[in-house]
């Protein structure tokens, strides 16, 4: 087994990224610790002061120390972290809808989302991921849920997947600072698991309000979960991708195109040809839209 001290900085960074992507959030010591032995030492240390305070057989009971009764040691109280309040799912959805509908701008919606505590995903996440970039571009890209990199950086499409997205955008003349990026789910699920249907329902008012307030002309949906969330059904991304569909939002239909998530291209590079075809389709529609304005 290779010890951490024998790794180069680059190798150590790669190892840490691997563990983070796998959902590891706590690191243990390299050598095992005998907690039972530590507990016995702690008990012995607690008994030592009381043993020293006991009078010897020949000691006079008239001394103040001898007359003073021994106070029993107070039992150790285990501190527990406060538990988050559990809100029924339907009530949480109503609270989310009220908070989202009350926002009149993306800035107000971000504040409302950060103050919202009705979804249990927030209690285990480090960051609340909200739309970033330029809403005036008229182009919105939506991913599924935050990755470990997103959670650490506090922004959608971070890490290697984000770098892949940057290359995808550059291939059709776009860059992330000039478009709007967001996720369906604003909090990373523990261990990168899929959100439950109830969790998705609670988050729905916020992502729909983001789209309504951003008023995009075109939307690019990335990944299985994102396509199913908006289009419904159980088809994999290969059943949704490459087809323009109207996404009804606040009384208007917004053209939306689904494609593969950057992480899927890292996992299976052969999918890059499919993503490239989708990107060209998106580019042609965006150019036609610009010409019509």
Describe the structure.
α4 packs antiparallel against α5. About 7% of the residues have low confidence. A 6-stranded mixed β-sheet has the order 1-3-2-4-6-5. It has a domain of 204 residues: Uracil-DNA glycosylase-like domain (Uracil-DNA Glycosylase, subunit E, 3-Layer(aba) Sandwich), CATH 3.40.470.10. It is globular, with a radius of gyration of 28 Å. The chain is built from 13 helices and 6 strands. With 293 residues, the protein is α/β, with parallel strands linked by helices. 47% of the residues lie in helices and 10% in strands. The chain starts with 8 loop residues before the first helix and ends with a helix. A hairpin with a 2-residue loop joins β5 and β6.
Give the SSE layout.
Blueprint: H1 9-21, H2 35-53, H3 64-67, H4 89-102, H5 106-115, H6 121-124, E1 132-133, E2 139-143, H7 148-153, H8 159-170, E3 180-183, H9 197-214, E4 218-222, H10 224-231, H11 237-240, E5 244-249, E6 252-259, H12 262-267, H13 272-292
In short:
The chain has helices at 9-21, 35-53, 64-67, 89-102, 106-115, 121-124, 148-153, 159-170, 197-214, 224-231, 237-240, 262-267, 272-292; strands at residues 132-133, 139-143, 180-183, 218-222, 244-249, 252-259. The protein is of the alpha/beta class.
Structure class: alpha/beta
Order of helices and strands: HHHHHHEEHHEHEHHEEHH
Distance between the termini: 63 Å
- What percentage of amino acids are in beta strands? 5-15%
Mean pLDDT: 83
Widest sheet: strand order?
1-3-2-4-6-5
Q: What is the number of helices? A: 13
- The top-level CATH class of the domain at 89-292 is Alpha Beta
Helix coverage percent: 40-55%
Low-confidence stretches: 55-66, 77-85
Specify the CATH architecture of the domain at 89-292: 3-Layer(aba) Sandwich
Shape: globular
Rg computed from alpha carbons, rounded to a whole number of angstroms:
28 Å
Number of strands: 6
Largest sheet report: 6 strands, mixed
